[in-house]
Design goal:
The complex is a heterodimer of chains A (about 100) and B (about 375). Chain A is α+β, with helices and mostly antiparallel strands. Chain A has 2 helices and 4 strands, in the order αββββα. A 4-stranded antiparallel β-sheet of chain A has the order 2-1-4-3, with no helix packed on it. In chain B, a hairpin with a 2-residue loop joins β1 and β2. By secondary structure, chain B is α/β, with parallel strands linked by helices. The mean pLDDT of chain B is about 90. Chain B has 11 helices and 7 strands. Classes of the chains: A alpha+beta (about 100), B alpha/beta (about 375). The complex binds zinc ion. Zinc ion binds next to loops of chain A.
Chain lengths: ~100, ~375
């Protein structure tokens, strides 16, 4: 029979190994950072029509870009900002369920 | 019975050896050597990541330059990466602001001239983006060089305290390096950054008011307008390139031109939030909200003090990442709220027909006016 003192020694050794592996993995794990995409809001100064589009390099607030589909007036970029990308993985149902 | 005995022996033997090793390490100081080795390995790995960021960003800007017709961007990089500005003497502080201002302006001009000499015929907007992108790459290179210096020094001299300090600050440095690395995207494409919230508020005020006149001095625009029955003078960096202008010096000269006939000065700027504070929080206070090395800020303080003009500040709080990367939606919305905040503040503090100077401080990239 294995004595109780022996069992305690083994448990101590094994738990020390498990703990150190756990802490090593914990320190290596990195929190996932959110990703951003840049959107711009175009507005028609005449009729107030607005549309949200993806930002293109070189665009700036106040720039004239495209025409209003309703009245043909040139559209003006009203705002440019970044929004968090929606995580597609969360939206889909996991296959392994 | 014999088998069980052997098992008991093995278990206690392992423990015995473990303790023996433990004490040998402790008394010979070898445990510190192991610890030092672990630290320097970790720092080395992080340094490798920093170098990779620097390398990627360098390639990105090089490609950008090649697309603009620069045959050998390597030569430009060689000169830009090691470009330095020496701090003025500060044990003799007489006219230090003048000297610092002179050095900063010379540094700015030389850097621009250097970039322009490799990119003749490029328009100002494009050039300003290249300049800032280059300075981001140079900043990453500087961090890489300094960390490498302390790592090698610590290893060479077996200085475990130096390595420990380095190991402890590495997470903070890595966070800043990653922030800079990610910021490059905004500067190569010219989208507004979080720091642009001051110029954004200034631009919105210009849009709202009835513009009387507009002029450009030292890459800074001065727009006079009527709004809410008051005379507003809006100062911001000239956009939409990557530019911070000289809002302090220009504000001081505007006050001088009006011989002190100003009832209120308000500066608007992005400010670094404390951990735990929300992005896009607005706060008001007193003083010059501007984060330059000194000359611009002191110009505002001196001019307002000379004529006894109330100096108020409105700040929009954000983290470093939010400040130098593309403007997040919550910062943009805070900017829109700040416009109303400023109008209310001005109505509260000044009677009808007063003259108010508003300075939107920050990088105006992607924001015109
Ligand atoms: Zn329309």
């Amino acid at each position: 029979m294995i004595s109780s003192q022996d069992a305690i020694t083994w448990i101590a050794v094994i738990s020390a190994i498990i703990l150190s592996i756990y802490f090593m993995m914990e320190s290596m794990r990195k929190p996932k950072e959110p990703e951003y995409e840049t959107m711009e809001i175009l507005e028609c100064p005449k009729c107030g029509y607005t549309v949200t589009k993806e930002f293109e390099p070189g665009d700036f607030i106040g720039m004239i870009k495209g025409k209003c589909p309703k009245c043909g007036t040139p559209l003006i970029i009203k705002a440019i900002y970044e929004v968090e990308k929606k995580n597609e993985k969360n939206l889909k149902t996991p296959n392994n369920l | 019975m014999g088998l069980e005995m052997a098992e008991t022996d093995w278990a206690s033997l392992i423990v015995q050896i473990f303790w023996l090793l433990f004490f040998i390490l402790l008394f010979t100081g070898a445990n510190q050597k192991i610890q030092m080795k672990l630290w320097s390995m970790d720092i080395r790995n992080k340094l490798r990541i920093i170098y990779k960021y620097f390398n990627d960003d360098e390639d990105k800007v090089k490609n950008l330059l090649k697309n603009l017709g620069v045959a050998s961007p390597e030569l430009l990089f060689k000169r830009v990466l090691d470009f330095f500005t020496i701090q003025p003497v500060d044990i003799e502080p007489t006219d230090i602001i003048k000297r610092l201002d002179h050095l900063l302006r010379t540094s700015d001009k030389s850097f621009r001239r250097l970039v322009a000499s490799y990119l003749p015929g490029i328009d100002r907007y494009e050039r300003s983006l290249i300049e800032t992108s280059l300075s981001i790459v140079a900043a990453l290179y500087m961090v890489y060089k300094i960390i490498r210096h302390y790592l090698l020094l610590g290893e060479k001299e077996n200085n475990w305290i130096l390595l420990m300090q380095l190991e402890l600050v590495m997470p903070q440095i890595m966070r800043i390096v990653e922030t800079y690395h990610k910021a490059l995207d905004a500067f190569t494409t010219g989208k507004p950054i979080g720091d642009g919230v001051g110029p954004l508020v200034a631009y919105r005020l210009i849009e709202l008011g009835e513009v009387v006149s507009r002029r450009i001095v030292e890459e800074t625009s001065i727009t006079e307008l009527r709004l809410d029955n008051r005379r507003y003078i809006i100062i911001k960096a000239e956009g939409p390139g990557s530019n911070v202008g000289h809002p302090g010096a220009v504000l001081a000269s505007v006050i001088e031109d009006l011989k002190g006939g100003v009832d209120l000065v308000v500066t608007i700027d992005a400010a670094l939030k404390l951990e735990g504070e929300e992005n896009g929080e607005i706060a008001e206070g007193v003083g010059a909200a501007i984060g330059d090395p000194g000359p611009e800020k002191i110009a505002i303080e001196r001019a307002t003090t000379k004529y006894g003009i109330p100096l108020r500040a409105v700040i929009v709080k954000m983290g470093l990442a939010e400040a130098i990367q593309g403007m997040r939606k919550e910062i943009y919305e805070a900017g829109e709220r700040t416009v109303e905040y400023i109008r209310r503040l001005v109505k509260e503090l000044t009677p009808i027909n007063s003259t108010v100077v508003i300075a939107g401080i920050g990088n105006t990239m992607g924001i015109p006016g």
